[in-house]
Every structure is written in C-alpha cells, then in structure tokens.
Write a structure and sequence with these properties.
The chain is mainly α and 202 residues long. The chain has helices spanning 19-24, 35-60, 65-79, 84-100, 106-119, 124-133, 138-148, 151-171, 176-189, 194-200, and strands spanning 4-9, 12-18.
Length: 202
C-alpha cells in the first residue's frame, strides 16, 4: 500500500503528498501552470497536509487555538523549513477550516477544562492557571470560571480535599492539630484563599 505519491512538474519531481491529500486535489496531467498557479497549488497541498496533521493532534485530546497554532508553526518552520510568510498563510487557512468544522473551539474547551480542574480538586486560582497554560485566553478563562466554578463549589471541593489529606496525615502518625496544620498549609500552597480554607476546615 502506497502512503505517499510524487507530483512532477516539467518531468521533474516537485512535491511528495500523502494519499489523503492526493484524493482532495483535482490534478490533471499535461497542464501548464504559471508561477502564481504553482505557488497557489503548493500552498493548498501544504494546507491539506497540515490539516491531516491537525486531525492527528486532535485524536489525542482537544486543543486550544493557541496550542494548535503552535504545533503547526513548529512543524512548518522547524521541520518543513518553510518561509515564515508561507507558514502563517497555511496556519491561518488550517485554523479557519478547523473552526468551520467545530474541531477547535476555545469556549467549549474552557468549560471542559474547568470541569477537569474541579475533578482534580484545583482551587479557582489554580484552575485559572491551568486554563491559561492550555492556551485559553485570560478573559475567556475568567468567564468560564465565573459560569462554571462558583465560590460555593470551591468551598465544597476544598472541604473534600481537606478530609482526604487529614485522613492521610493521621495515617502517617500525625496528631490531630499537626494534621490540620499540614492540611491548611497544603491548601494554601494549592491556591485556596484563607477564607475558603477556614470554611472548608470548620
């Protein structure tokens, strides 16, 4: 089974393409192309190739626009050695096609990441950092937290964490006061405010 095919111009090898890209192109033999048409065809081929790579990246997990753009930029500039101007044109086109197919949506991803942060017992501050690290813009991260992670929910999550860690420290042989002191110290390190810590350990 052939995974890649060669495209020839004027009887000489020009570009190698994947079978998926070849199927998406409408190529005809013995057609004369101007330099502008050659350039346009090359950009379209590169765009289709990067689109396939984007599908592959998304096969592992959802990604933010920033993450996807960085992945494509690394591939095009470092691996493919394309000029930056061409790379940016291709990235913009790939991102537009992904968005049209709802395969990249930072708003939906932000809400999903907030759920993940809560499941991991992150404080609201830690959750915000988590979203930003995943490429979500700060403004969108704030909106997602306001809509999906209330102060009341943070206290509930903090209380669950406190109970779990208190039990752990007691199993390690710590007395009650020392165990609670260590719990509160840990919660502070995880970004819970003193107000939340006080309510959660009351």
């Amino acid at each position: 089974k052939r995974d890649r095919y060669s495209i020839f111009l004027d009887g000489q090898f020009w570009l190698g393409v994947s079978v998926d890209t070849l199927h998406d192109l409408s190529l005809t033999a013995d057609v004369e192309l101007t330099e502008a048409e050659k350039k346009s065809l090359e950009l379209e081929i590169r765009t289709l190739e990067m689109l396939q790579k984007a599908y592959h990246y998304l096969g592992y997990r959802d990604r933010s626009e920033k993450e996807m753009e960085n992945k494509l930029r690394t591939t095009l500039l470092l691996n493919e050695k394309l000029p930056r101007e061409d790379a940016e044109i291709i990235i913009a086109e790939v991102m537009e096609r992904l968005k049209k197919r709802n395969l990249v949506d930072d708003e939906d991803l932000a809400n999903l990441l907030v759920e993940q942060a809560q499941a991991r017992k992150y404080s609201r501050m830690h959750a915000r950092q988590y979203l930003v690290q995943k490429g979500i813009k700060a403004e969108l991260a704030n909106i997602a937290l306001e809509e999906n992670y209330s102060s009341e929910t943070e206290v509930e999550i903090a209380a669950k964490l406190a109970v779990e860690r208190f039990a752990y420290y007691q199993r390690m042989g710590k007395d009650e006061k020392t165990a609670w002191d260590k719990v509160k110290q840990l919660m502070g390190q995880k970004g819970f405010s003193w107000r939340v810590i006080k309510e959660a350990t009351a």
